Amino acid sequence: MTHFSAFSLLKNALSANENWRPQWPAAEPKAEYDVVIVGAGGHGLGCAYYLAKEHGITKVAVIDKGWLGGGNTGRNTTIIRSNYLYDESARLYDHAVDLWEGLAQELNYNIMYSRRGVLMLAHTVHDVQSFQRHIHANRLNGVDNRWLTAAEAKAYCPPLNISPTARYPVMGAALQERAGTARHDAVAWGYARAASARGVDIIQNCPVTAIRRGPDGAVVGVDTAKGFIKAKKVAVSAAGNTSVVMGTADVRLPLESYPLQALVSEPVKPCFPCVVMSNTVHAYISQSNKGELVIGSGTDQYTSYSQRGGLALIEHTVAAIVEMFPVFSRMRMLRMWGGIVDVTPDRSAILGKTPVKGLYVNCGWGTGGFKATPGAAHVLAHTVARDEPHPINAPFTLERFTTGRLIDEAAAAAVAH
Ligand SMILES: Cc1cc2nc3c(=O)[nH]c(=O)nc-3n(C[C@H](O)[C@H](O)[C@H](O)COP(=O)(O)OP(=O)(O)OC[C@H]3O[C@@H](n4cnc5c(N)ncnc54)[C@H](O)[C@@H]3O)c2cc1C
């Protein structure tokens, strides 16, 4: 395993960086594993890491149809926060934030977790009431969140336009200071390297074409482009493609897949100190360490697997950003892209066991699952290893859509990033 240290950096610099060993070997599938994980995004790789580290299960393969981290993990705008309304969500996302804080040390990988604060702007009386309700609920759950006046929000984020003549004047903001961003690729790479070092096989460019079940209905393995792989436990972490993968095991999920877009500007000097989100004008923005303004848009109105979204949405988003930050009106945009997000009716994840013995699912993160990566991966590993949910993910069942015990973050937030 390649270790990063001051010494190794110096040694490799002296040989023109040509002698670095690969961070993880390119594995070929073995005939059998204890656990197969479908999807090498942050969630799947993280699950493999915690299976090996905390449960001693190392005969694990993480299989991806493309390249590792090439799904939504490498396409998202990296906002991390835990100021969700409901107790169940607050526990899950705050568990993730707890893990984010020590993740760089844990993985010995600079994932660039930056605790820079997330401001959620209120533009209407409804926003004010809704965010203040969130703040009270969060505080009861021990999640930091506080109210700022418009002037205080401006002091926290100087480029913000708080003119009362704006089309959507800022009436105040909720601030979670513990929230922030992290480097998305590094999260996938860090987990991949650490999992691989503990014996996990990471198999790329190998679509899983079917989940195979035996005569008693239990999982027996997966069919892949590289042949059949035997496994009594299969965990699916395939984001926007979850319904397709789970459909091969005859499991139907209440998911719809939509394109979600983002875009970045040309890089500029540091000028934007935090993350700002606005549900009403429907846009959010931060600045990456490279200097690009990272801007997120909404989902398309129609379902699709195209991995690119409609231009109208980008136009709307850019107009919203200029409304809130007129100072950025002459910035040039560098590139845009899309990912396919899997959305549940209550906008909360499905994370746990399925009606099929040996089959586990981690999906429904929609537009906001990057922030959950370490927490979701951690409790998924527990669920797979013990065949029972961790108390944190116990409420995030598939059954809630039949029992009606929803975790209705859909009603609680318009923008779920
Ligand atoms: C534009 C955009 C912005 C976003 N912004 C944020 C944000 O700011 N904050 C936030 O918290 N979340 C955000 N999200 C959501 C977040 O990116 C996802 O919820 C999260 O990254 C999902 O991680 P994952 O590991 O489950 O999925 P992914 O990273 O998508 O990994 C799933 C993997 O499964 C693989 N796969 C699929 N089908 C198969 C198959 N048949 N065989 C093998 N492999 C398969 C895919 O190739 C993929 O690599 C955003 C998403 C997008 C698209």
Describe the structure.
The protein is an alpha/beta fold and 417 residues long. The protein has 11 helices and 18 strands. It has helices at residues 6-14, 42-55, 87-107, 125-140, 150-156, 184-197, 242-247, 311-324, 373-386, 400-403, 409-412, and strands at residues 32-38, 60-63, 79-80, 118-122, 146-148, 172-176, 180-181, 201-203, 208-213, 219-224, 227-236, 256-265, 275-278, 283-287, 293-299, 333-343, 350-353, 359-363. The strands form 3 sheets. Strands 1, 2, 8, 9, 10, 11, 17 and 18 form an 8-stranded mixed β-sheet that branches. The two termini are 34 Å apart. The site of flavin-adenine dinucleotide has 40 residues, from helix 2, strand 12 and strand 16. One of its GO terms (biological process) is tetrahydrofolate metabolic process.
Low-confidence stretches: none
Elements, N to C (H/E)? HEHEEHEHEHEEHEEEEHEEEEHEEEHHH
Number of strands: 18
Catalogue the ligands. Answer: flavin-adenine dinucleotide
Quaternary status of these chains? single chain
Count of helical regions? 11
Large-scale geometry = globular
The overall average pLDDT, rounded, is: 95
Helix content: 25-40%
Termini gap = 34 Å
Topology:
Blueprint: H1 6-14, E1 32-38, H2 42-55, E2 60-63, E3 79-80, H3 87-107, E4 118-122, H4 125-140, E5 146-148, H5 150-156, E6 172-176, E7 180-181, H6 184-197, E8 201-203, E9 208-213, E10 219-224, E11 227-236, H7 242-247, E12 256-265, E13 275-278, E14 283-287, E15 293-299, H8 311-324, E16 333-343, E17 350-353, E18 359-363, H9 373-386, H10 400-403, H11 409-412
Parallel strand pairs: 1-2, 1-11, 2-8, 4-13, 11-18
Antiparallel strand pairs: 3-7, 4-6, 5-6, 9-10, 10-11, 12-15, 12-16, 13-14, 14-15, 17-18
Helix pairs in contact: 2-6, 2-9, 3-9
Flavin-adenine dinucleotide is lined by residues 38-44, 63-66, 70-73, 75-79, 207-208, 237-239, 241, 245, 260-262, 296, 339, 341, 365, 367-371, 417.
